[in-house]
Amino acid sequence: MNQSAIITGGTGGMGLATAAILGRDHRILLADLDDARLADAVDRLGALGVEAEGAVCDITDRESVNAAFARAQTSGRLRAVVHAAGVSPLMGDAEKIVRINALGTVHVTETALSVAAPGSALVNVSSIAGHLLPSFLRPLPAFRWAMSDPTRMVSALTRMATLAPGRGAPGAAYTLSKAFVIWYSQFMAATFGEKDARVLSVSPGSFDTEMGRLETKSGSERMVGLAALKRFGTPEEIAELLAFCASEKPGYLTGTDILCDGGNRAGLTLAGMLSMARGG
Fold first, then answer.
1. Could you tell me the fold of the domain covering 3-277?
2. How many Cα atoms within 13 Å fall on the side-chain side of residue 186?
3. Which of 32, 153, 235, 260 has CB atoms 3.0–4.6 Å from 13's, for a disulfide?
4. Where is the Ketoreductase domain (predicted)?
5. CA 266 – CA 155 distance, rounded (Å)
């Protein structure tokens, strides 16, 4: 194979399922924090006939991201990146969530842009949570700090999240950070387009993954009850979408977000959106 793909969060359910599809015609580099999980994931892909290797990568550290991208390029042209790494409201405090979900996306996107060439594609994974924040409430001035002062962006979004009532700061941070991923992917499309490359985001709803099951404690089952398809999605279902978006087939698809939520958003009223965004 003369082309490669990076999948961040590659040991998770979505990431690993996406690797199995992209691995049909790409050499895969899985980027994640846990070396043991990486080794297991590489073995599982190898059993499917997928050429893969793992790289320990902290997406909140730009140098760590740069190193993972450099490693991927030793295996051939880096054509596709699926950025699936992230944390949920139950996996840390507000600052940690913003740093991983928002700052991590800036690092991956900027590094992907630096090596982009005609036909390259970056798919950032957001969440239905990013759609639960009405557009008129998006803190665009804070989002725009991503281009000039990402540290200030992290501080601003963290501060906003901590204004949430009760113990709602992590949930607010998650919503803000995933809204940022959608906005930022759209904002960066023109810059990627200058290199004849693409960037977009995909927003999953409730899926049966390790992180998705964890979120049953904070209302994901209630979300499923509001959806048109009253079940959790499977990792394989979202992986088909992620792999397609990252492939060369949808060559005119960029600067947009694709919501894959089983019809969940379609069933939410404004009041319901605000309630879910608050974690209530």
1. Rossmann fold (3.40.50)
2. 14
3. 235
4. 3-163
5. 33
For residue 98, give the nearest of 170, 168, 32 by alpha carbon: 170
Sign of CA dihedral 274, 199, 155, 84: positive
Task: Give the bridge partners for 30, in sequence order.
Answer: 7, 54
- As a whole number of Å, the end-to-end CA separation of the chain is 49
pLDDT band at 17 (very low <50, low <70, confident <90, very high): very high
Q: Which residues pair with 28 in a beta bridge?
A: 5, 52
Q: Within a 10 A sphere around the Cβ of 187, how many other Cβ atoms? A: 18
Query: Each residue of 67-103: pLDDT tens digit?
Result: 999 999 997 899 999 999 999 999 999 999 999 999 9
What's the DSSP call for residue 24? T
Buried (b) or exposed (e) across 226-263, using 16+ Cβ within 10 A?
bbeeeebbebebbbebbbbbbbeeeeeebbebbbbbbe
- What are the tokens at 163? 């204004």
Burial call 194-206: b when 16+ CB within 10 Å, e when fewer: eeebbbbbbbbbb
By the 8 A CB rule, do 55 and 31 touch?
yes
Give the list of residues 6+ apart from residue 236 with CB closer than 8 angstroms, or none: 17
Per the CB < 8 A criterion, the answer to whether 108 and 81 are in contact is yes
What is the pLDDT confidence band of residue 269, given thresholds at 50, 70 and 90? low
Mean pLDDT of 32-40: 97
Distance, CA of 193 to CA of 272 (rounded, Å): 37
pLDDT digits (tens, 9 = 90+) for 96-124: 999 999 999 999 999 999 999 999 999 99
What's 262's DSSP letter? Answer: T
Q: 58-95: b or e for each residue (b if 16 or more CB lie within 10 Å)?
A: bbbebebbbbbbebbeebebbbbbbbbbbbbbeebebb
